[in-house]
Amino acid sequence: YELCDEYGMLVMNDFWLSTDGFNLNPLDNCLFVRNVTETVRRFRNHPSIALWCARNEGFATNELEYMLAATLAKEDGSRHYTGNSRSLNSSGSGPWRYQFDAGWYYRSLAGGFRSEVGTPSLPTAETVREFMAEEDTWPISDVWYYHDWHNHRYGSKTFSELYKEGMDRKLGPSDNLDDFCKKAQLINYESHRAIFEAWNSKMWNDASGVLLWMSHPAWPSMVWQNYSSNGETAGAYYGTQKACRPLHIQMSLNSQHRVDIINTTLKEYRNLKVEVVVYDKLGKKIRFSQQKVSHVTPNALTPVTQLEDIKGLPDFSWVKLVLTTNNGKLLDDNVYWLNQKEWDGKVLTDLPISSVNVSVKNFTKKANHYEGKFIVKNPGQYLAAAIALTLRDAKTD
């Protein structure tokens, strides 16, 4: 709670009743309410607690619900109390499976307050090797299932089959752990960014918020993580981070391909510029446009333009959005892929490999930290995508 206070994170505070119809109800309601009373008195002075909630995915029993509502009204009348985090004043929870078409979130899900939604999130190969013997890492084995590689069915396909088939169709099948995990990071980035940008695209137009299932697992896991149990940040983390920037430029992944500025701050911006640049698959610039935006309202969506005539573009293209001040200072950027033909696993597999150079400039030790600038250059003629930077200890790697 103290860290949430410090960093401005709001808490939907569930009590200890888990899923209705799946977990047991308390045997002693009075003891349960005494626990609630002590908990509320102990923590109610923390401003990060936004509301108290009786139960995740269900309601308390009738008798306990009345006791809880009365207790919360007496002990903390300053906060809202809700009896169910899933279906009371919420648009529900789920799904938790991979959606092959990222535009699905815009068309079919974004709206209201979504208390829980998720998508698989495989960690990097390096992290997998930390918690799994090398002989178990590939091919996918029972050890993967032990670490949450779920076989829950969604229609004719399992949770893990949908994810793997989606990766294979977009980036080609893999025959080793490193290739599989590397491709997964691009898929994780795209899907997590889409969840949050879909809600952004309808900001306050029926869309008020979304909670991700989940931030991180309590143990080494293959799914549902914004960062891994060892603290590693991979594709899902950066996709979420990109979509949730306070001042953000984005393109909706539905048929309109609308470009909007999302401003979730209380600051007003004036005289900004938006560049929309389209590249072919190899990185050759094929279209460029620039719009001036005179006024960006606080805590609001500002429409800018629309990507028109996409049928005139190559079958596959990259779209880069750049948001700057009037004098050229970078505020945000964003990159999307547009594929107008069937994904067959071959669209991107034949891309030429780019040689990316990384250098360090003015790296110096200060009193209690280091400062410096990392410079990434692509000297070749072909585009380089999905660059990940990792800082390592020279002695221990």
Description:
This protein is an alpha+beta fold. Helices cover about 25% and strands about 30% of the residues. It has 10 helices and 16 strands. It has helices at about 1-5, 30-45, 60-75, 105-110, 125-130, 135, 140-145, 160-170, 175-200, 235-245; strands at about 10-15, 50-55, 80, 110-115, 155, 155-160, 205-210, 245-250, 260-265, 270-280, 285-295, 300-305, 315-325, 330-340, 355-365, 370-375. Strands 11-10-13-14 form a 4-stranded antiparallel sheet, with no helix packed on it. The chain has a 3-stranded parallel sheet with strand order 1-2-3, with helices on one face. Strands 8-9-12 form a 3-stranded antiparallel sheet, with no helix packed on it. Helix 2 packs parallel to helix 3 and helix 9 (about 175-200) packs parallel to helix 10 (about 235-245). The chain is globular and about 70 Å long. The model has no long low-confidence stretch (mean pLDDT about 95).
Give the topology string: H per helix, E per strand: HEHEHEHEHHHEEHHEHEEEEEEEEE
Spatial strand arrangement across the major sheet? 11-10-13-14
Radius of gyration, in angstroms, nearest whole number: 24 Å
Which structural class do you get from the secondary structure elements? alpha+beta
Q: What form results from the Cα inertia axes?
A: globular
Average pLDDT: 94
**Number of helical segments with 4 or more residues:** 10
- DSSP strand content: 25-35%
Largest sheet: 4 strands, antiparallel
What share of the residues lie within helices? 25-40%
- Low-pLDDT ranges: none
| Strand elements, count | 16
N- and C-termini, Cα separation: 34 Å
